[in-house]
Specification:
Helices cover 41% and strands 15% of the residues. With 278 residues, the protein is of the alpha/beta class. The structure holds adenosine monophosphate and manganese (II) ion (MN) (3 copies).
Length: 278
């Protein structure tokens, strides 16, 4: 039986709707045989997910999705096979919790100026011990009737250039890659086609990513169509990068992105799982 991989998804440790255990359970039901949990800037869900994966008999890969900056763009770097106990990475995630809390305070102030009070208390309550993300703000705006969908919350308030956007001091891409590599992991550029880069910027990024030690790019994601998969596979070959596959699943409420429901990696691409040592 071939393995069915899903190497990018989120739990309640960041902005996912399912607990780590429930997420693993759902992945198992969907036929996934090898799963990486990659919450935003945190490894807090990994222990619970690993226990659940062991119980279900599926392979578990410790992961993270680190927010980073390159050329003033915010890019997401997925780390696969990381050791969450590696001290610089543990310190980084600890600091990122505060960074995200401070950003949340600023977002809430900006919303107050738009006559939308109460956001900070609401997102803190929603997130609990987890990372506060803009998804929590989107859910708050939705619950208060200010918008009709999460997407509208980003389009009207939270996306770059909108009234409640706050730029955040993420680590440099090369630093984030370093944390991943030195903790024993493989650095993967997440959803490269979602940054709205021109072809020449994307080439520049892939060069810089590879030079900093990045080894793979996501070629198959929950949102790419056949043309986008082919496009990314061509880039991966050209830059000598391996390919990853991950749904970026957040919630069962999203009908379009299901765990493990992914097109196969193009056969000429080296799979990132060949690079994983554990
Ligand atoms: P952040 O707290 O900035 O890391 O954002 C968390 C989540 O917001 C990301 O995982 C995305 O799923 C979502 N997101 C970011 N930008 C957008 C956007 N423009 N439209 C919809 N969702 C977005
Ligand atoms: Mn997210
Ligand atoms: Mn992302
Ligand atoms: Mn993600």
């Amino acid at each position: 039986m071939p393995e069915i991989y899903d190497l990018h998804c989120h739990s309640t440790a960041s902005d996912g709707a399912l607990s780590p255990a429930a997420l693993v359970e759902r992945a198992h039901q969907q036929g996934v045989t090898a799963l990486a949990l990659t919450d935003h800037d945190t490894t807090a869900g990994l222990d619970e997910a690993k226990r659940s994966a062991d119980a279900a008999g599926i392979r578990f890969i410790s992961g993270i999705e680190l927010s980073s900056h390159w050329q003033s763009k915010c890019l997401h770097i997925v780390g696969l096979g990381i050791d969450p106990a590696y001290v610089p990475l543990a310190e980084a995630t600890h600091n990122l919790r505060n960074t995200r809390l401070q950003r949340a305070e600023q977002i809430a102030l900006k919303l107050e100026k738009k006559r939308i009070p109460g956001a900070l208390a609401a997102v803190k309550k929603m997130a609990g011990d987890s990372m506060i993300t803009r998804t929590h703000f989107a859910d708050f705006l939705l619950s208060q009737g200010h918008v009709l969908s999460q997407q509208e919350a980003f389009d009207r308030y939270l996306a770059k250039g909108k009234p409640a956007y706050v730029s955040t001091p993420w680590a440099d891409m090369s630093v984030a890659i370093d944390w991943i590599i030195k903790s024993g992991g493989v650095a993967v550029l997440a959803h490269p086609l979602r940054y709205q880069l021109t072809a020449s910027w994307l080439r520049r990024l892939l060069n810089a990513f590879k030079e900093a030690g990045g080894q793979a790019v996501e070629i198959v994601t929950g949102r790419y169509n056949a043309e986008e998969i082919k496009n990314m596979a061509d880039y991966a070959k050209r830059f000598g990068l391996a390919g990853s596959a991950g749904s970026d699943f957040h919630s069962p409420a999203n009908q379009y992105v299901e765990l493990g429901r992914l097109a196969p990696l193009p056969p000429e691409i080296q799979p990132v799982w060949d690079l994983l040592t554990s």
